[in-house]
Design goal:
Elements (H helix, E strand, L loop, with lengths): L1 H13 L2 H26 L4 H13 L4 H19 L4 H22 L8 H22 L4 H17 L17 H15 L3
Helix pairs in contact: 1-2, 1-4, 1-6, 2-3, 3-4, 5-6, 5-7, 5-8, 6-7, 7-8
């Protein structure tokens, strides 16, 4: 969910409000029901309302500052939810999310050309989440988790060769195997934290 919101926030800041609105709405439209029960069990059922309010603010074309503030609150809730999962589980999730990003990216660059910019945005946003979360774990006092997370950050950086700018412009390798390979290396790195 956060990957869609990160993409939406970046697009909003860049002035592409139409694309931003689409991405801000995706967490509730496409993803939330898959985790709703677990979030309720953990005491974070209010996340639905936070994300819905953020999407509504984007639809209303509120100021970027307000959108960014609301995103910060959603992200804080995401951070609180993550405290319910140990470092090993979080590290494994990065490889899984990178595979999802690779699947989206494969649709985006069908035939070696940018064919679907919305799927490109998805992949971009998912990789930004991994970059941020793995970066935080890399600063952990747990040496094994820190080393594994640092290796994952390196893979995110290496996968950067598959991305141009936010809108998919520029000179870059339009090859989903870059992301699939990064996911495999992330999975290997996460084994070191067990």
């Amino acid at each position: 969910m956060e990957g869609h919101l990160r993409a939406g926030l970046a697009l909003y800041e860049a002035g592409d409000l139409s694309a931003a609105k689409t991405h801000m709405g995706h967490p509730i439209e496409e993803k939330y029901e898959a985790v709703a029960k677990r979030l309720d069990q953990l005491g974070y059922g209010d996340l639905r309302e936070q994300i819905s309010a953020l999407a509504a603010a984007a639809e209303a074309e509120d100021s970027y500052e307000k959108i960014a503030e609301m995103f910060g609150k959603v992200r804080q809730t995401h951070e609180e939810v993550r405290t319910n999962f140990d470092a090993a589980d979080q590290l494994k999730s990065f490889a899984a999310l990178t595979r999802v990003a690779a699947d989206e990216y494969a649709i985006a660059v069908e035939g070696g050309t940018l064919a679907n910019v919305k799927e490109y945005h998805d992949a971009w946003g998912f990789m930004r989440v991994i970059e941020a979360e793995a970066g935080e774990l890399a600063a952990s006092d747990d040496a094994k988790a820190s080393d594994a997370a640092a290796a994952i950050v390196e893979q995110v950086e290496a996968a950067g060769s598959a991305f141009g700018d936010l809108q998919g412009q520029g000179d870059y390798e339009k090859d989903p195997s870059i992301l699939y390979a990064a996911a495999a290396r992330m999975e290997l790195a996460s084994l070191g934290a067990e």
